[in-house]
Amino acid sequence: MRDHLGRPLVAVTGIGAVTSLGFGVAESWSRLLAGQSGIRRITRFPTDHLRTTIAGCVDLPEERGQPFTSPIRVEHMAAFVIEEAITEAGIGARGRFPGPLFLGMPPVEVEWPARFDLARKGHDPSYPGMTATAAGRHDIYETFLYGGIGERLAARFGTRGAPISLTTACATGASAIQLGLEAIQRGECDACIALGADGSVHAEALIRFSLLSALSTRNDTPEKASRPFEKSRDGFVMAEGAAALILEDYDAAKARGATIIGLVSGAGERADNFHRTRSNPDGRAIVGAMRNALADAGLEPGQISYVNGHGTGTPENDKMENFGMRAVFGDNAPPISSNKSMIGHTLSAAGALEAAFSLLAIRDGRLPPTINHDEPDPNITLDVVPNVARDATVRHVLSNSFGFGGQNVCLVLSAEPT
Listed GO molecular functions (predicted)? Predict the structure, then answer.
């Protein structure tokens, strides 16, 4: 089986997921379709005097009251979703996965609690003083080494070759899937693991996004705070989570008797260097990324059944996504909804989670809703599947990921050929 450009078809044979709605694909997906919110008050660290005090937290049972740093949280969630995905795919058992690992994750830095601890121990809060105190601390080095997580996951699951760790802001998870897709299309491997994971709900990250005026401050009703495409939206809600896809050469997967969940049939990207958080008002990069994904999949706009929107809930992003959708689809735009209305914005994990939910929408013929859609925005002229999930025949889904810094990646997920 080959695509319109003569490349191998790329099948998805396993999915793993963890979100603020639950651990595992089944729980997250069922609660998503039910329109439930995973957003709640932050209890992991003090939030006194902060403008935003809510998030979509994933509290890991192994923390036992002592919050993990972001890298450790990422590693735990990544291991969980990989294990779930390879179990479903029936490949890579006993720590011997027959292909590479593509890990999308956030940037890593020594977080405030560790820096404060170094300052206390060295009696010197300056960076040179903390650096001197940290000398010989291999635990700090191993925890905050960016490539270390990928190396440990690769060793644990027995993947082949050097693991690739990457970050492209809010498009990271989609970028990891794109790398896996292209590796199989080029014939470099028959199978790979592609995932995105993010555990960035800690004080410093929250304050930084707040200083950008990007976060919702609807603290009194956390479950109502994330309101993509709705008139009173006031920013996104930070969240954590992870999703992994097992990608395989379609023919190789069929030959071993694997169940095909769906296909990754195309990917498109387009950079926009207009502003650190805003898209260029001409929408060229957003429109280009969507069109590039459709062209890569060999599809016309009218063949898309549903769009899993980036839909962050910021006034600017939702307006630009609406603009881009109209430029690509005209007056016949397909339904679009935002998973972020329920699980929040999982940052580096968002593109992978939304690809996973897109595949499940194809499998089950159900479109997840955009909840908290109380008052339509007259400037958003799209069918956003408001508040209630919907039955639909879904053959092809466009999944949008538009990252800060103008890093835009769109994926096309498709049903298995009949």
Answer: 3-oxoacyl-[acyl-carrier-protein] synthase activity
